Amino acid sequence: ETGVTQTPRHLVMGMTNKKSLKCEQHLGHNAMYWYKQSAKKPLELMFVYNFKEQTENNSVPSRFSPECPNSSHLFLHLHTLQPEDSALYLCASSQRRNTEAFFGQGTRLTVV
Amino acid sequence: AQSVSQHNHHVILSEAASLELGCNYSYGGTVNLFWYVQYPGQHLQLLLKYFSGDPLVKGIKGFEAEFIKSKFSFNLRKPSVQWSDTAEYFCAVINTNAGKSTFGDGTTLTVKP
């Protein structure tokens, strides 16, 4: 049990589909993050939310759309993805912006 | 651009051997430093961290790391590895001024029983 829960664990979607990834943390943290982990590449920070406000978008294509309705929940809305977007998407949270992150198990996304 | 370099992509050791994994970063300002571990089939979890103070920090499971500011390094060490240490290890750096975090590529450690 990590304290950060991601659903679904696995997702297969077509390029024309729309789907959403969900992340929930019960740690009382104020910052939440989306990362992308691809094979043979370092972990890529996609989005950062601090106190529900988006503070960082690392040049992520608009086909990825984050949403943070409250400090415990984070979503990643996906639409018209490409096969190269297939990866493990990790959600994380931290007490404050510069402190250690607690990661979820990830969603293994396959785009066909 | 801020970067983190982990020198070894794959390390293979026998049980009881000593371990040192290298980590160097490129940012010259104030940083917070981390090592994370990902055991097979499990989530990424914190091994140890450095924010300030004693540059030699101790983490879980007998791991330690030393921050050498002049070398921009934060190497991970363990005197005697066990088979259960088989995992992927990631070094991470946060630039505390910008709040920007960067991870290294990761090092896969395989410990042979």
Can you tell me about this structure?
The complex is a heterodimer of chains A (112) and B (113). With 112 residues, chain A is mostly beta strands. In chain A, 0% of the residues lie in helices and 57% in strands. Chain A contains no helices and 11 strands. In chain A, strands 2, 4, 5, 6, 9, 10 and 11 form a 7-stranded mixed beta sheet that branches. A 4-stranded antiparallel beta sheet of chain A has the order 1-3-8-7, with no helix packed on it. In chain A, a hairpin with a 2-residue loop joins strand 5 and strand 6. The N and C termini of chain A lie far apart (31 Å). With 113 residues, chain B is mainly beta. In chain B, 0% of the residues lie in helices and 52% in strands. Chain B has no helices and 12 strands. Chain B has strands at residues 4-5, 10-14, 19-21, 24-25, 31-38, 45-50, 56-58, 64-68, 73-78, 87-95, 100-103, 107-112. Chain B starts with a strand and ends with a strand. The model of chain B has no long low-confidence stretch (mean pLDDT 94). At the A-B interface, strand 10 of A face strand 5, strand 6, strand 10 and strand 11 of B.
> What's the rounded overall pLDDT mean of chain B?
94
pLDDT below 50 for ≥5 consecutive residues: which ranges of chain A? none
The structure class of chain B reads mainly beta
Biggest sheet of chain A, in brief?
7 strands, mixed
Taken as a percent bin, the fraction of beta residues of chain A is over 45%
Radius of gyration of chain B: 14 Å
Mean pLDDT of chain A equals 93
> What's the β-strand tally of chain B?
12
Low-confidence stretches of chain B: none
Helix fraction of chain B, binned, reads under 10%
Question: Distance N terminus to C terminus of chain A?
Answer: 31 Å
Query: Which percent bin holds the helix content of chain A?
Result: under 10%
Please work out how many helical segments of chain B DSSP would assign: 0
Contiguous helical run count of chain A:
0
What structural category characterises the helix and strand content of chain A? Answer: mainly beta
Percentage of residues in strands of chain B? over 45%
Radius of gyration of chain A (Å): 13 Å
How many extended strands of chain A?
Answer: 11
Quote the distance from N terminus to C terminus of chain B: 41 Å
